[in-house]
């Protein structure tokens, strides 16, 4: 099935900015800084909301809202380099679906594509590809923006996380130590659900020094879907950013299902020497899952595969 229309986006909200020139200067010699293949000025974390407009009342996007958040790497010349985002689509009845995307500005990409990876209730099995042009074709005086979109979709079950195991040859184990999820805000959804936006920071340790995540620090954000009566977490969709000790950046997008005790993160974009790397993290709550601590921090154990 196909649908066309437009999205009216709000002004972009910048949540966090990091200057990587200052950070490099405390960790690298002048020669190392000159030879660093990143030459990044910094990172911006952002959020944006929107609403879909289409004449097709049978489209799952009819009068639906759009939530987008992620981060973008800014090159030394001030231009956008790479962006990674997760998104949530919520229809007028409060049914949500969510997924992720990335944009390679340096590679010359001119469109952005969104593919739902999971959902609840009426949008549980929605799959498809939503695309629009980059940059937007119209900017409004109040810093809102309008883009024309195309959406090809169908309804069928999503592929379970377990089917992604044994994808790559290099394997090992590790853990992350991170603080509690800090909530920005929450909104009610259909029936028994609500959606929360939150963030957290931490560090990662792996048993393989060649693993891209070896001794990295990370900053993660999450769309967390919860039961609105007990506030118990049901699922997370997370764009997590990792930075190694050379300044290379890795973005993993995670999908966790707490009721099934499973989670999977996979590499969606990277800079520097990890740019062509493939990587999965697997979390199994029944075996290696999450250890809570008295200081409100968490230790999350995982298995990984990469090449």
Strand element count: 20
Tell me about the biggest sheet? 8 strands, antiparallel, barrel
The figure for the number of domains is 2
> What's the CATH class of the largest domain, please?
Mainly Beta
Helix content: under 10%
Which regions have little confidence, pLDDT < 50, spanning 5+ residues? 20-26, 33-38
User: Would you tell me which CATH topology of the largest domain applies?
Assistant: AOC barrel-like
Termini Cα gap: 36 Å
Radius of gyration: 19 Å
**CATH hierarchy: architecture of the largest domain:** Beta Barrel
The fraction of residues in strands falls at over 45%
Following the backbone from N to C, one meets helices and strands in this order, namely EEHHEEEEEEEEEEEEEEEEEE
Description of the molecule:
There is one protein chain. The model is unreliable at 20-26 and 33-38 (pLDDT under 50). Helix content is 4%, strand content 58%. The protein has two domains: 2-155, AOC barrel-like; 166-306, Porin, CATH 2.40.160. With 307 residues, it is mostly beta strands. It is built from two helices and 20 strands. The protein has an eight-stranded antiparallel β-barrel with strand order 1-3-4-5-6-7-8-10. Strand 9 (138-139) and strand 10 (145-155) form a beta hairpin. It starts with a strand and ends with a strand.
